[in-house]
Amino acid sequence: MKYARLTKEQFEELNQEFINFLATQTITADEWTDIKINKPEVAEEELDVFSDLVWEGVLNKVDYIEHISPQQIHLFHLKDDTMKLVAIKIKNPIDLTTPEGFSWLRENLMDEDVEFSQAKKEYSKDKNSDKFQLIQQGGVITKGDLYKYIHQLIS
């Protein structure tokens, strides 16, 4: 498995897509039931393959990922060849993961306790694995509004 298995909730949301996936492999509902009972290792493999296909589809479309921790925000713009990063670091004990902390940041963006930095990095051989790693580390896929705003502000 290249990425991570989808959760039970994600499989439930993608039930029709999973049925279609099984159909492309000429596996009927009765055969799937039989596989789950009599060949659980094969069922596990099918779940893993489907999960990887879903992740590939999602990762191919991801353009922005945000990671917010108590003292820092990392905003990634995932371009075709490179990842661009805008980072914000807070030098005081404000917790940016709380509504109060984020409000403080909005009102004090130009405060001396707020540091901005930018970076650019080439992808490894597997761009989607790089994106997935950011998500595994706590990043969240976004539309990039915060990245665009901060990038415009500091450029």
Top keywords for this entry?
155 residues, alpha+beta, 2 domains, 5-stranded antiparallel beta sheet, 21% strand, Histidyl-tRNA synthetase, DUF6495
Per-chain topology:
Layout: H1 8-13, H2 15-24, H3 29-38, H4 40-61, E1 64-68, E2 72-78, E3 82-90, H5 99-107, E4 114-122, H6 127-136, E5 140-142, H7 145-154
Antiparallel strand pairs: 1-2, 1-5, 2-3, 3-4
InterPro entries: DUF6495
Protein name: Histidyl-tRNA synthetase
Organism: Bizionia argentinensis JUB59
Give a verbal description of the structure.
Pfam families: DUF6495. It comes from Bizionia argentinensis JUB59. This is Histidyl-tRNA synthetase. The longest helix is centred in the N-terminal third of the chain and has 22 residues, at 40-61. The chain folds into 2 domains: 8-61; 64-154, no CATH class. The model has no long low-confidence stretch (mean pLDDT 94). A hairpin with a 3-residue loop joins strand 1 and strand 2. A 5-stranded antiparallel β-sheet has the order 4-3-2-1-5, sandwiched between helices. Helix 3 packs across helix 4 (40-61). It has 155 residues and is of the alpha+beta class. Helix content is 50%, strand content 21%. It has 7 helices and 5 strands.
